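S.,

As promised, the zinc ion run. Input:
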Amino acid sequence: MKRRNFISKNLAMGALIPASCASFGFTDQKAKKTEASPAACDDVVVEKLSEEQPHKGKVLAVIQPHCDDIPFFAAGTVAKLIYEGYTGYLIRTSNDEAAGSGASTGERVLNNEKDNDAVAKVLGLKRSYDLGYANHRMDEYNIQEIKGRLIFLFRLLQVDTLVCFDPWGTYEENPDHYITARAVEAARWMAGMSTDYPEQLEVVKPHTVTAMYYFARGPQIVNRVVDISKFVDKKVESLIACKTQGAGGDNGVLLKKMLADKGQKLSVLGDDDDTANFNYVKEFVLDIDSDHLRGVPSDRKSGAKYGLEWAERFHYIGPSPSKTDKFIQENAVSI
Ligand SMILES: [Zn+2]
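Predicted complex:
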């Protein structure tokens, strides 16, 4: 993904569309729209960390078209949800053949595959599934095929919650991103139907994914911010694991060397390579130069709006408990 052109061309971030939406979960609190956060929807839920393992026994699908998408936009939340008990699986839809360093296509595919596995390891995900569609060309495939494979995986793994690009995100230029997101949103509820791909039900059970954390690079209805303060270093590590493409990898070392060649240094980059890579990602990629390098606002500034050190922003859709059941419970009388 040619990050630099994309970022400079589409820097009009922050134009969020207000709407009313919020739902309560474990340690979630509602935050009223404040002067500091005019762009979020009326009620933003601030999802805080629970030390009670509330998600034990549940399954999380972490879905990315490219090996650096989750590290860029949602790795902190993924690490938090795994910490809270989920068993997580990584699903990558493209083969990253057009991305990053490597003389040949095969080399790039192999390098990115290694990085993708390294990202899964850093974030504590059980294993990764690669769907292998050609990078930058996912709009040439019949989306029904992609939906069919995702429906099977959601049933096989009995996925309860997923993290992925927002299918309704606007101004998204990369077809791999919006095709993956649309296939995921359709497949996640069809997986619960017994009428879609009924032959699969000979080996797997129907299962609906009921909670979705959708992230976007463009304007989006943000109704949830997740406190990732305890997991921001994991996010940094996942970005450093992307050696083949993206703003992480060894870019800190490259910057340090470039400055040294000019007889200069930045104290924030420290005196060794690991510190240079780590602090470059934490200070520049996630904060100071986030708009330019990632195309989204700083995670530090996103957190500050809600009194958090670091945060990630999402359009969250969660299970909506039936009010009829509740009414019957409270009002039904025996005859
Ligand atoms: Zn991507």
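Residues 41-226+314-319 form a domain with the Rossmann fold fold (CATH 3.40.50.10320). Confidence is low (pLDDT under 50) at residues 1-27, 32-40.

- D.
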